[in-house]
Amino acid sequence: MTAPAAHDQNSPLESALLDVHATLADLLIAADEQYAAVVARDHQRLESVTRQQERLSARLARAEARRLDLLAGTPLIEAVSALPAPAAARADAVRHSIVDSVRELKQRQARTAGLLEQSIDLAAQTLTFLHRLLTAQPAAYGARGFAPNRQSVLVDGRA
Fold first, then answer.
1. DSSP per-residue string spanning 54-93
2. Could you read off the pLDDT of 2-12 as tens digits, one per residue?
3. What's the mean pLDDT when you consider all of the chain?
4. What is d(CA 133, CA 24) in angstroms, rounded to the nearest whole number?
5. Buried residues in 134-152 as b, exposed as e (16+ CB within 10 A)
6. Cβ neighbours, 10 Å, residue 8
7. Number of folded domains that form the chain
C-alpha cells in the first residue's frame, strides 16, 4: 500500500479523502501496536493503544462526515469523475488506497481478535483446571482399595 502524494492544489474532496486515508494509515499502525501488546501481554500498553484507537476512530468519523458533506448525496465515483482530469486521477488513486487500507485494517483487527479469543479460551481452561484442583475431595482408601467419597447423612430418630 503506497500513500498517495499530497498536492498543493487539492480539491476539497481530494483533501477530505486524504484526511480519511491518513487516519486509516494511523489506525493500521495502531492495529500493529495492539497486536504486539496482546502478544507481549502488556496490559498497560494495550490500554494505551486502545485509547489511541478511540481517538483515531473519532478523527476518522469527522473526516468521513466531511467527505459525506462534500459529496452532498452524490456517489463518490461520480464526484471523482467530475473533477478536472489531474485531480480526478489523484482522487481515484486515494480512493483505491482507502479501499486497500480498510481491507488491511479488517484483516489486522481479525488477527488480533483471534489472538484475544485464544487468550480468553486459555484463561478459561486454566481457571477451570484450578477450580477442579481446589474443589476436589481427597481420595479415600478403605479395606478394598480406593473408595469414592461418601457423604455422611445423619437421620433424626423422629423421621
1. HHHHHHHHHHHHHHHHHHTT--HHHHHHTS-HHHHHHHHH
2. 545 544 578 89
3. 86
4. 48
5. eeeeeeeeeeeeeeeeeee
6. 4
7. 1
Tell me the residue range of the domain where 43 lies.
12-109
Is there a domain that residue 136 lies in? Answer: no
% helix / strand / coil in the chain, to the nearest 5?
Answer: 70, 5, 25
Phi and psi at 59, nearest 5°, equal -65, -40
In a domain, 155, yes or no: no
CA atoms within 13 A on the CB side of 131: 6
Distance from C-alpha of 41 to C-alpha of 45, rounded to nearest angstrom: 9
Query: What are the φ/ψ torsions at residue 142 (nearest 5 degrees)?
Result: -120, -165
Give the cell for residue 28: 493500521
Is residue 40 assigned to a domain?
A: yes
Q: What is the pTM of this model?
A: 0.72
| Among 156, 4, 157, residue whose Cα is nearest residue 80 | 4
Q: How far apart are CA 72 and CA 79, in angstroms?
A: 10
The number of helix segments (H) and strand segments (E) in the chain equals: 4, 2
